[in-house]
Design a protein that fits this description.
The two termini are 28 Å apart. The protein is 24% helix and 35% strand. The radius of gyration is 16 Å and the shape is globular. It has one domain (4-132): UDP-N-acetylmuramoyl-L-alanine:D-glutamate ligase (3-Layer(aba) Sandwich). The protein has 133 residues and is of the alpha/beta class. A hairpin with a 2-residue loop joins strand 2 (13-19) and strand 3 (22-28). The chain has helices spanning 30-41, 57-68, 117-124; strands at residues 4-9, 13-19, 22-28, 45-50, 52-53, 77-78, 85-91, 97-102, 129-132.
């Protein structure tokens, strides 16, 4: 069976989560989680993540982590003067989680305005599957 290609389109954000009296930093998002699990489950599917990131340290850390997961990153645009979105998870005494978001100016919101947007859209036509959320 030949390898199929899926493009997972979405946003990954910096995640701050409450750990007793401090915050823990990571990153996540539903489309990224989907891409990671798909990449881990099968080698018959090439998983490509489509988004935009900044040129900052946090964005570079995200990119390196995705590459470690064997996610293809060639369709990710890097945008000067933009940053990833941010969210904070607050957990109350009952274990209920509340999410707070800061993403109005996040790089991922502008990926269709980036220099490579037209080229990326042309490439998406060739994929076997597209996933967006």
């Amino acid at each position: 069976m030949s390898e199929k290609n899926i493009a997972v389109i979405g946003e990954c954000m910096i995640e701050l989560s409450q750990q007793e009296n401090s915050l823990s930093r990571g990153f996540g998002g539903d489309t990224l989680n989907t891409a990671v699990y798909l990449a881990r489950q099968t080698r018959q599917l090439a998983v490509h993540y489509v988004t935009a990131l900044g040129t900052d340290t946090f964005s570079s850390e995200m990119l390196a982590a995705w590459q470690q997961e064997k996610i293809q990153t060639g369709l990710i645009q890097r945008m000067e003067n933009k940053l990833p979105g941010l969210y904070v998870i607050e957990t109350d005494a009952r274990g209920e989680r509340t999410f707070y978001y800061w993403r109005n100016d996040a790089a991922a919101r502008f990926w269709l305005e980036g220099e490579r947007a037209d080229d990326i859209c042309q490439q998406l036509v060739q994929f076997d599957f597209l996933y967006l959320s």
